[in-house]
Design goal:
about 70 residues, mainly alpha, 4 helices
Length: about 70
């Protein structure tokens, strides 16, 4: 059982960490590359929203995993 809150917090601290917690390694790699890239390329303009999206997707994916296991 995955805890959605843990996944979201992990991914908010380090984009992709929540996805690793969920076992989604390719998604984690995507977020680990994309989010810092947007922070640098757009001087933070798109970096912050992508940070939130990373946390949100980790949360939703953990919920989906839990529904499948139930």
């Amino acid at each position: 059982m995955k805890h959605p809150g843990h996944a979201a917090i992990l991914s908010f601290v380090i984009p992709g960490a929540g996805q690793i917690y969920n076992g989604d390694f390719f998604r984690a790699l995507f977020w680990l590359i994309i989010t810092p890239g947007f922070w640098v390329v757009t001087a933070g303009f798109f970096g912050f929203p992508f940070h939130f999206v990373s946390a949100y997707t980790a949360y939703r994916r953990a919920e989906k995993i839990n529904r499948r296991e139930a």
